[in-house]
Amino acid sequence: MQNLTILGSTGSVGANTLDVVERHPDRFRVVALTAHTRAATLLAQCRTHRPRYAVIAHPDAAEALATGLRDEGIATEVLCGADALERVASLAEVDTVMAAIVGIAGLKSTIAAARAGKKLLLANKEALVTAGEVLMHAARVGGATILPIDSEHNAVFQALPRTFAGELAAVGVRRILLTASGGPFRLTPSAELELVTPDAACAHPNWRMGRKISVDSATMMNKGLEVIEARWLFNAEPRQIEVVIHPQSVVHSLVEYIDGSVIAQLGNPDMRTPIAHALAYPDRIDAGVDFLDLARIGALHFQAPDTVRFPCLRLAYEALEQGGRAPAVLNAANEVAVERFLAGAIRFTEIAQLIEAVLSRCASGHVLTLDDVLAADEAARACAQGWLAERNHAAGNARASTALLSSVTRTGTRS
Ligand code: NAD
Ligand code: MG
Q: Are the CB atoms for 97 and 121 separated by under 8 Å?
């Protein structure tokens, strides 16, 4: 029996994890579930899985959850706040931790699971992007095994030999090829990108995911974050990681060997496949997915990415090359930009502009510890707020001069 903590159980990856877990009550037992604010969803999950602990960030939501559990006679203990996430990630009775919180909010609990030597199923890519070295070191020292959940990295993991121990050259690997669907705007002309809406950006053609990663897919920052993620997971040089656009999302990624062989992992785009793979590893279990029908799909297409229309991919490579604070700064600026875009405060094309400005202003400096990462994150968020204030000021001035100009023109017309 494998005892599980699922961090971010109410999200898209979290719900998919519970779907797989429910199919195998003989293998998995849920010890802890966590959510940010959605008490009703967490209560429903507690009803089904009867975990020992349920963690929720907000005190009001914790109160509502505790009342609901009491009314239904469910003996789950409610914990509240960010520290409780670290606690349930490192409980002695837990074997496996699914890290599926979105953003840097998931960093500390992911590191706690690594330090505690858990089998760490890593969906929270922002943890590796911001703190790659710190997290990999914590896993080594703590004796944790990291299994990638991101479909591309899970595919690479499956295409590498079992003997891979952190040296790509030692197992004859030349390159890692990460596939990218290209997102909902793969064919959208540059001029139209400025006007796309949050809902259009979240309408991914192949995957149903949370809104943050959906916007990241639309800007292609998701692929940029995944390049950085691959650097740490597989100890790859940036030049060894290549991105190829593959609109069907059937080939999830590939590994090229020095003898010219290329090994890929294929499947329908359904996160339950990598989740089931990692949960059961090294066994294989039923994931509830539809099986691949290649004859029905017919053709698979590949093309090079366009970093002019999608500058975020270039920015991520640059941050990776720069190293130090730069990836954490890239991530923080992206989190702020995506949140502002989803709130309707900035345009889609301003996401990359904000990130580029913040990278140029505050990306230098070293990162040795978790505190360094958190300081870089905080500085980048402050810098992003500065950029937004300048932008709003400039937009206000532009509006004022347009109004002035039109009043002058009207006056001129009258006279
Ligand atoms: P989501 O938005 O659907 O869910 C996020 C989860 O994190 C929720 O349970 C939410 O309650 C929790 N959360 C959010 N902010 C929090 C905070 N401040 N404190 C505590 N908990 C918080 O996101 P998702 O799509 O499931 O993605 C989760 C992670 O997995 C992301 O890092 C994403 O990049 C990665 N990922 C997702 C997919 C996918 O198919 N959805 C695929 C690959 C990788
Ligand atoms: Mg992915």
A: yes
Instruction: Write down the pTM of the prediction.
Output: 0.95
Output the CA 238–ligand 1 centroid distance in Å: 26
Q: Which atom of ligand 1 is nearest to the CA of 38?
A: 11
CA of 8 to the centre of ligand 1 (A): 6
Number of domains in the chain: 3
Distance 230 CA to ligand 2 centre (A): 11
Closest ligand relative to 213 C-alpha: 1
Distance of CA 156 to CAs 59, 292, 400, Å? Answer: 41, 19, 53
Minimum CA distance residue for ligand 1 atom 30: 123
Which ligand minimizes its atom distance to the CA of 12? 1
Question: What is the model's pLDDT at position 412?
Answer: 54
Work out the end-to-end distance of the chain between its first and last CA atoms, rounded to an integer number of angstroms. Answer: 87
- Residue 408: which domain range? 323-415
CATH, residue 23: 3.40.50.720
Q: Which of 116, 149, 182 is the last residue of a domain?
A: 149
Helix (H) or strand (E) holding 140: helix 125-142
Laid out side by side, the sheet with 28-35 consists of 77-80, 53-56, 28-35, 2-7, 96-99, 119-122, 145-148
Say whether pLDDT at 147 is over 70.
yes
- Helix ranges (H only) for 343-369 are 348-362
Residues, CB within 5 angstroms of ligand 2 (ion): 150-152
Res. 155: pLDDT tops 50? yes
Q: Looking at the predicted structure, is the pLDDT value of residue 414 above 60?
A: no
| For the CA of 35, the nearest ligand | 1
Over the range 27-41, which residues count as b (16 or more CB within 10 Å of their CB) and which as e? ebbbbbbbbbebbeb
CA 288 to mean position of chain CA atoms: 23
Adjacency order of strands within the sheet including 241-245: 241-245, 173-180, 251-257, 262-266
Identify whether residues 157 and 246 lie together within a single domain.
Answer: yes
The single residue listed with the structure tokens 């009775």 is 93
Which numbered atom of ligand 1 lies nearest the CA of 127?
32
